Amino acid sequence: MSQRVLLAVDGMEVPAQNAFGDRVVVEQGTDVAALAKRAAQAAAEGERVALVARATDLASARAELARIAMRGLGIVAHAIAEPGGPGVPSCESGIAPALTLGDLPWGILLAASVGDGLDLSLVARRAAEDSGCPFVVVHERSHAHHAEPVVAPSRELLEALLGGPRPAGYPPPGPTDRAFAERAPFALASAMRELEALTGRRHDVLERVPAADTSIALVGVGALGDSMLADVERQRAAGHDVGAVRVVAWRPFPGARIVKALHRALAITVLENADRPLAANGPLSVQLKAAFADALTWAPDYPGVGRIPRIASGIVSARRELDASDVDAMVHNMLADERGRRTFTIGGDPAAALDGPPVPRVRGSAFTLRGIAPRRDVAVAAGELSAVVLASAFGLRTRVAVRALADDEGGGFAFDLVAARERPRGVHAPHALRVLVVSDAATLERGNALSRLAPGGLVGVPTRARAADAVWSEVPPWIKAVAFDRSARVLGWAPAAPDSGAWLQGAAFVGLVLAAAAADRSLTAGRSVDAGVVEREVAEALRRVGADVAPVAEPGGRLARESFEAHVEVPRATIDREDDGVRLGRRDARAGA
Question: Which CATH architecture is the domain 367-592 placed in?
């Protein structure tokens, strides 16, 4: 939809034409301030302009960004929030540098996933052009590799949302001041409602699960907030009266809406990855407490409250990924009343960490699968293919994250796939897995790869055996004990040869993934998939990857078909009569973990 894209990020491809058929002019450089100045010139001439830069670099161009806002230029900037590495200060990692732009008169929207970022980019463009207030959309990256199949917006959608291509010489609205900036909240709300009317995808300045009041609540932004929303279902199933709120709009900050959503809570935990070590709290905690202070003093537009809930503030280390067990610990901390910590860290100083009771693995409503490969490129290929093919074959919303596994989980690289009818939330590792597929037998010897397997789950183990008894005889004793105690199914499958290339090995993974998904009636919704469909879908997905992968499309489709057809399931009767093997396996600590 943009006519000019100014890039300060390497390795990003921009199409030659936008959705309206206009030629896209791309300007690339390393001086973000100079690019911002050039963006202002192009926007003043009536062009639709997008500026793409890392959040740290964008924060260094504050003077030019302020000038853009004061001129009322409806520019949309995309801030890429990079994860922190060793030696990187916390103020320069994650979304922390993007939040420092909050004192500029720019709207700031915090995306939680690939699809969410695309939708918020459309919303920001409509709101910026309606109000004259420029917007920043923050896209988070993490140490894990994330992928999510999305459909590019059509010309018809953009014409309905934006009114078609911008005519030449389109005048900017004029200078921005406080009175003029008050249009931004209304323009943002209007853009979100319009996108929902056109696509059916609901967006708001904050997301809340459930809609009813709860006694304790979790609050976050971006991917952290989305992960906490995803875990509410499990927490409520465990009997906890817990809710979660994800703040989408950092500017304009929806203070009154947040107070209305949380004013009946007794305890609130705010979790963020933007650390301010010498400040009283993190930036989101400060905003939340200020909003409650306004409500307590009967500020206009705020609901009146008679008290402020107990608010705990938590920080996630830049090199630490949120886990479902961390959410369990936060809920346990809130339930401890005044004995609970008011401040804590996750992945930082152990003295400031939270302790929580062990929680049993329970299957959620979404289909969760983990595939483990010895190489990262194989896990990436298998994960991306699985997400695309599941979405195409069953009409599902999917997302996948590829992450390195710790030694205690067997090492290697895992792709965690989540599929559901609604958009899967969160990018953290699933709390419980319905399916676990391993391509290297050494993984099962190094650690406990089955630690997240839910009761009634399925385990795919690598083997060349073609008889169920032969497959079972190769299964390590501790896995036999896990399969017996958790009523798990065991499948034997033949991975592709290690020297066959990442995409071919990934295609073989997809065949077993589809076999596991096809057996889940809650997932298929009456759709059936046969071997011919598997071969066709995988081959087509490989062709869409690119010209360099297209030559392996046909053999990849055949490999997927073989995995789909040739896997061998161990009968439940065989598992139940394995008394000696199960007793021996229970001596291994991994069986009871």
Answer: 3-Layer(aba) Sandwich (3.40)
